[in-house]
Amino acid sequence: MSVRIEADVADVVGPVPRRLFGSFVEHLGRAVYTGIHEPGHSTSDGRGFRGDVLELVRELGPTVVRYPGGNFVSAYRWEDGVGPDRPVRLDPAWHSVESNRFGLHEFAAWAEAAGVEVMYAVNLGIQEAADVLEYCNHPGGTELSERRRANGAGRPFGFRLWCLGNEMDGPWQIGHKTADEYGRLAAETARVMRMIDPDVELVVAGSSNAEMPTFGEWERTVLRHTAGLVDHISLHAYYQELDGDTDSYLASAAALDAYIRTTAGIIDEVGSRVGISVDEWNVWDQRRWNSTDQPQLVAGGWQEHPRLLEDTYDLTDAVVVGSLLSSLLRNVDRVTMANQAQLVNVIAPIRTEPGGAAWRQPTFHPFRLVSSLARGVSLRLGFEGDRIRTAQHSEVDLVDVAATVDESVGAVFLTNRATTTSTDVEIRLRGARFGVPAAETLTATGPVPLPGATATSDAKGTVITATLPPLSWTVLRLAAPDA
Fold first, then answer.
1. According to a count of CB atoms within 10 Å of the terminal CB, is the N or C end of the chain lower?
2. What is the pTM of this model?
3. Is 26 tagged catalytic?
């Protein structure tokens, strides 16, 4: 099987935003407690931050982390997580007990240690959002800013990114509203937040998924209410293998492409100029949540940080994650930021054991490689060659591809959707000369060198060839001929 891919380095989709490589930490299961925070662990510092996890987070390379939810945020009182006296509360969203030992100050410090920007999600009402913004970002002299200073943060946190609630169209959501109800509330909240801090960037909640019966009309209504007040609209997308249909699972990026382009069309239809924030995306076996985790919550009663959504990933999952990252790169003309959900333990690339080790899941590796290598601009690509038919996504290209270039270096990210056969790839890049690429392909334990990749270049450009193993995700690192 074979495919041919063509691109011109002058024909670009758009710049690659660094916020495309975000992640997510929610007060859910063990994401926080025994995930990023475990006082007494052998690697933890005086603040209780697990050093082994911080090391892996820095290696993974997320640029922004969304916090504290998720479904959790609709019942969360941010005041419970600041100051010396912190109440223990029930978290109805995940049927858990929240100790509030870890809160706003701790996360701000952890984010600084990890080198990531904070994307803070607020629980609407209007006053709640206004209060937490004043607490976080106002320098001093008011009751709330002075309370922050008294709690140990003399300088403002200066959070720029704010989510106005989460999945508000979902009937499972504690703060569930109609599109009109939410749109009006989001507009009122955005207005007062901009009065307090004109520099904030605001993300309004779009549909929870593309299968919601209100998808489309929800976006139209919310965007009309919030016109001129928000900067981004959210999009959430999760994918799983169903009934052994691996071909459809490997084509998940085609579904994400369609979801993004449909949402972009709705934005254009209403005359909005907002970007798309894919602030929850991943592979997630939701059958396990329905069959295992939910009964555990009821049978186990109310527990602190129970084990929830701790999916164990394999190579196929990692290949799909790689292709979803390629979808984000192909759509940088509309996608302004994205957050893989989540970072540690909960459907995550990093797993831990309390008091024990932290380790990388297979999905860790494509994220690390794309976040470190995708720079500059994303190229518009032409495809010729074999296609495959899937049950869920109709016919898709046999090889999923994205490519980025930045001056004299570049990267090509390739997913071979053929499950039993290798695929020969020829890539023609006009307008740039590159040397023989360093090629790596994923295994269950990480990337390994892929032999046999070649490159020939002349005044017109570069021709690269490689043979992709079956069911694989491969990256070609491009450098100048004399590099």
1. C
2. 0.97
3. no
pLDDT tens-place string over residues 281-340: 999 998 877 666 776 666 668 999 999 999 999 999 999 999 999 999 999 999 999 999
Residue 342's Cβ-count burial label (10 Å; 0-12, 13-18, 19+) is: buried
Task: Please determine, looking at this structure, whether the domain spanning 17-373 carries the CATH number 3.40.50.300.
Answer: no
Q: Which one, of 380, 479, 375, lies nearest residue 433 by Cα?
A: 479
Which of 26, 79, 106, 280 is an active site residue? Answer: 280
Contact 188, 194 (CB under 8 A): no
If one counts every other C-beta atom within 10 angstroms of the C-beta of residue 236, the result is: 23
Active site residue 167: yes
Domain boundaries, the chain: 2-10+376-478, 17-373
Structure tokens at 309: 């959504």
Given 26, 79, 98, 167, the catalytic residue: 167
CATH topology for 2-10+376-478? Answer: Immunoglobulin-like (2.60.40)
User: What would the pLDDT profile of 378-424 be if each residue is shown by its tens digit?
Assistant: 999 999 999 999 999 999 999 999 999 998 899 999 999 999 999 99
